[in-house]
Amino acid sequence: MLTPMQINLIRQSWKSVVPVGDTAAQLFYQRLFELDPGLRPLFDTVDMDEQRARLLRALSLVVANVDQIDTLVPVLENLGRRHGGYGVLDRHYETVGQALIWALEQGLGPAFTKEVRGAWVIAYGLLADVMRTAGRESCQSAA
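Above: the chain's sequence. Below: its structure in token form.
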């Protein structure tokens, strides 16, 4: 679980990302494809402008509810099931986390302190675990 201080760090840092959100999302996807070029085909038919907007909306929803993770679980489970259907594998969640943390670091610069990084890493780990589990269950039930 996140501490009140970590929740505050996430929310305050996100306020600085929002004004440069599309650039941050571009950096995220650029880094994601650098880390794992094999992920690029998953986005071949995707409108990347809309995809970046979806990413920012999803992250904004997480940030707004980061102190109420239980209310996010159904949303994250649905997202995880959809991603499982797209071909997202367990190992991809680690790569996404690396790309997200890197993009936040680029966007926030010196404001991306060790404490801010730690809060985001924990938050991403929580949401990725829920999505990963739901995606696995979705793949198992389809088999």
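Residues 4-142 form a domain with the Globin-like fold (CATH 1.10.490.10).
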